[in-house]
Design brief:
320 residues, T-fold
Length: 320
């Protein structure tokens, strides 16, 4: 959901800009040609995700749903997958990770790419009504390949679509090549297989991209063996409005940016989607985040609003 940060320092890698963030692809025991071919395997899936979930493309499935006035819309198989994933996130987070907050984000000024939003000095905050139904009002008919949402609702799948793309990407490359792979999109990282004779993929976790080049910043360098790692943060996607500074992680209970008890949360889980659901839930829970993460046995690194770091549920020891 949020631009988080990692720096993959070991092994051959390809890095490219994508969706206002950075894609990173690593293959173990691979040549440069292997990497280029692996990226080519990813491109169709990444295009499908963009065409399904981008709020900033007028021809995306999300945009067509927003314009449908409550009618059922024929959507792509990828959109069915992504909406199912988002609704599962809402269910397991007790509604905290809500995919129906696109209208609220638009009213806060997040109506274009974050790069464009940040380039505008001050965004006006709309006084329009923010709530049109909720996640339980989203109807998916997989057999008919349709999605139906209430008139006036705008979906935002940012909390899960990028993480789902990371999981899909790692699996696509692993299945096609048999080579251990790490695929990351911003702070969403998925791995399939570990490099031979290694302790896992070394990943440096930070709050923002700038921290990776800042020797004074406190980061965490850990080994990722399998599954996924996600970082959600309020520090990267921020902008100024007529009501003050805001960030993109909304609390559906208040329809306002989540209170910054924790400004960044990183979580390791069985999949990147599960990790991102947990990191986003923790940001929104605030005071109850640590207890929730421990109860669900999710190794996590939390950074408070004042920059204090807390590790819970067996967050890995840093590696050298």
């Amino acid at each position: 959901m949020a631009l988080a940060v990692m720096n993959l320092l070991d092994g051959p890698a390809l890095r490219w800009d994508l969706w206002s963030t950075r894609a990173e692809l690593l293959l173990a025991d691979a040549s440069d040609t292997d990497l280029v071919e692996a990226r080519a395997l990813l491109e169709p899936m990444l295009h499908q995700v963009e065409m399904a979930a981008s709020r900033f493309r007028p021809d995306s499935d999300i945009a067509r749903l927003a314009k449908a006035g409550g009618a059922s819309v024929l959507v792509t198989p990828m959109m069915i997958d992504l909406v199912h994933t988002a609704l599962r996130a809402a269910a397991v987070s007790d509604g905290l990770v809500d995919p129906t907050l696109g209208g609220a984000l638009i009213n806060l000024g997040y109506d274009r790419t974050i790069t464009s939003v940040k380039a505008m000095p001050v965004r006006a905050v709309s006084s329009a009504h923010w709530v049109v139904g909720g996640w339980r009002d989203v109807v998916v008919d997989a057999d008919a390949s349709t999605v139906t949402i209430p008139a006036g609702m705008v979906l935002d799948l940012g909390a899960t679509a990028k993480a789902r793309a990371a999981d899909l990407g790692a699996d696509i490359v692993w299945q096609a090549t048999g080579l251990p792979v790490l695929f990351g999109l911003g702070g969403d990282v998925a791995v399939a297989g570990s490099p031979v004779d290694s302790d896992g993929w070394p990943v440096t976790v930070a709050e923002t991209a700038a921290q990776l080049d800042d020797d004074t910043a406190t980061t965490s360098r850990i080994a990722v063996h399998d599954g996924g790692l996600a970082t959600s943060t309020t520090q990267a996607r921020r902008w100024m409005t007529t009501g003050g500074g805001v960030h993109h992680v909304l609390d559906p209970r208040t329809m306002a940016p989540a209170r910054e008890v924790w400004r960044t949360v990183s979580v390791a889980a069985a999949t990147c989607v599960d990790a991102n659901i947990a990191s986003t839930t923790a940001l929104i829970l605030g005071d109850g985040a640590s207890e929730w993460l421990v109860r669900h046995q999710l190794p996590s690194r939390l950074v408070s609003g004042r920059g204090e770091i807390t590790h819970v549920a067996g967050w890995p020891v840093d590696i050298s």
